[in-house]
């Protein structure tokens, strides 16, 4: 996944650098979605308590939530979520086993975390649409083998592979959303357009969720990027 090296000593708020990272993140998201679309919907992966194997372990969430928890637990121990551009989907993660890094203080602190909304929208709206073709192909194959009713579609049994791709997509979307809309992006704008914002304050909750119109010069630059 594309990342920004906060310890490089380079200009972290360069608009060109930020635009490059955002573009690479978008490419990662697109290719990950293409890979996820190769598998059926596997809807039970997103239902709480649908896997007896997990409830026997005392976990009452969904298969994807468990997959995220296990993945992010490991990553948290390697201090992934101490980085300013990383947001976990799981709460109550363990402390890192490595000593903390001293990241440059370039961002205003905020408590915005869009991950709950990202997870809900991804599982409810995105996955069913991108997996429609694979799901229909699965149903056709099952009907040809005499399997009909609830068992004829939805699930191809590839729960591990599908969840691995789900985690990749979700983490990429999360970084793209937080990186591009709430953090470095607008801090870079503040430097380019110091009078932009409400009273010059980028600490306002309303500013982050409803940013003002940007300066024309910057809008032209981003407009060119979006039309590529």
UniProtKB/TrEMBL annotation:
Coiled coil (UniProt feature): none
Reactions performed catalytically: chorismate = prephenate
Organism: Laccaria amethystina LaAM-08-1
One cellular component (GO) term of this entry: cytoplasm
Keywords in alphabetical order: Amino-acid biosynthesis, Aromatic amino acid biosynthesis, Cytoplasm, Isomerase, Phenylalanine biosynthesis
GO molecular function, one term: chorismate mutase activity
EC number per UniProt: 5.4.99.5
Gene3D superfamilies assigned: Chorismate mutase, AroQ class superfamily, eukaryotic (1.10.590.10)
The protein, known as: chorismate mutase
GO biological process: chorismate metabolic process; L-phenylalanine biosynthetic process
Location(s) in or outside the cell: Cytoplasm
